[in-house]
Amino acid sequence: MPASTNESGGHSHLPNFIKGLVIAFCLGLLGVWLLFGFGTKEHGPGDLPGVVRSQFVSEKFVEAGQGIDKIIDDAITLMDGGSFDKAAPMFREARDLAISGSKKVVSSGKGKEEDDVFRFRFREAAARYYLAVCLYKEIEKKDALKWSEAQRKGEPVMLAYSEAKPIMDEIEAGLKADPMNKSLWRLKGIVDNMLGRFLFAARALEKAVEIDPEFAEAYNNLGRVYLNLKETDKALNAFKMALGLSGERVETKASANYNLGVYYSQNALALKEKVKNVPDKDKLQQADDYRNKAEKYLGEYISSAPSDPEGKKIAQEYLDLLRE
Q1: I need a labelling partner for 114 at 20 to 30 A (CA). Which of 13, 24, 72, 202 fits?
Q2: Which structural domain, as residue segments, surrounds residue 34?
Q3: Local structure of 82: helix, strand or coil
Q4: Which regions in the chain score pLDDT beneath 50?
Q5: What is the pLDDT, as a whole number, of residue 54?
Q6: What CA–CA distance (Å, rounded) separates 287 from 269?
Q7: Mean pLDDT (the chain, rounded)
Q8: Cβ neighbour number for residue 271 with a 10 Å cutoff
Q9: CB neighbours of 265 closer than 8 A, spacing ≥ 6?
């Protein structure tokens, strides 16, 4: 189920069902962030800088680089199959080999080989990125029942600092090795958001889309963070950017449609409640406009979303409320 948030304090006029959902969406449920936050299948090696796969200048480092690449590729295959516990030690191995490789380049002296330091560092950053994702996924799996129950009750689940530290350590070290790694900046924003550090999250995600202005997944995350910061116009623009840039990426497109649909649903219901006893023609017209947009985006989400029965169920409940 993708995450979303509401724009304003209009929740107090909503039914209890909506109130619970609004709270959960505002704070961002961890399991939700994982589904549409950084799914592995939409983030293979091609999502990282192309230079990660570049050849070394010195022949003596080529074999080591190819060995690291193979470990990363094999570990990604395990990730895509859900074996995060098996993939994590492989990414650690790739990380350590890359660190060792860069040290060997430095000790070999100056010249053209200096460029090979960066090739090892890019590989180190890639390994740290995927390792951080594995650590995050392992937490999700361990506490799956707790998060599922929180979702059902509409309660927020935040990531504890003690859980986040090992993930953040890999992210920060990865960014030192490769400051232009868009995936690491995006992952930093996701984790900062789950820690409630919304300003830090926004800065990290803004950096990700600065590096790659067509980074649709990061725009989705950025929209959620902007809503947490009450930056409504920025949030809507970010969600629309995500939708426009999603291309054939089904999960990214579904998440953007869901975020936009829930935003417009919540505001349509809030306006509808406000004018129930005090009719206001302009507000009724605005509520109708919000409702039409909500029906459009939620309808597209339901028809195109991946296997996500809980998300579809909530989307349908919003549609039913809008049509009452």
Answers
A1: 72
A2: 1-39+183-324
A3: coil
A4: 1-51, 154-156
A5: 63
A6: 7
A7: 80
A8: 23
A9: 290, 291, 294, 298, 318, 319, 321, 322
Q: Are 257 and 244 in contact (CB under 8 A)?
A: no
For residue 214, the tally of other CB atoms under 10 A from its CB is 11
**Cβ proximity of 308 and 51 under 8 Å:** no
Identify whether 152 is part of a domain.
no
Query: What per-residue confidence (pLDDT) applies to 133?
Result: 92
Cα separation, 114 vs 38, in Å, equals 33
CATH number of domain containing 287: 1.25.40.10
Q: Is residue 221 domain-resident?
A: yes
Q: Write down how long the chain is.
A: 324
Q: Are 101 and 68 in contact (CB under 8 A)?
A: yes
Within 10 A of 17 (CB to CB), how many other CB atoms are there?
A: 13
Count of domains for the chain: 1
Question: What DSSP letter does each residue of 185-211 carry, written as one string?
Answer: HHHHHHHHHHTT-HHHHHHHHHHHHHH
For residue 37 the two structure tokens come to 């936050």
Question: Exposed, middle or buried: residue 278 (CB in 10 Å: 0-12, 13-18, 19+)?
Answer: exposed
Is residue 263 in some structural domain? yes
Alpha helices in the chain (DSSP H): 16-27, 30-37, 59-80, 84-107, 114-142, 144-153, 161-177, 182-194, 198-211, 216-228, 232-245, 250-274, 281-304, 309-322
CA–CA separation, 32 vs 201, rounded Å?
A: 17
- Tell me how far apart the alpha carbons of residues 17 and 203 are, in angstroms, rounded to a whole number: 33
Say if 166 falls within a structural domain: no
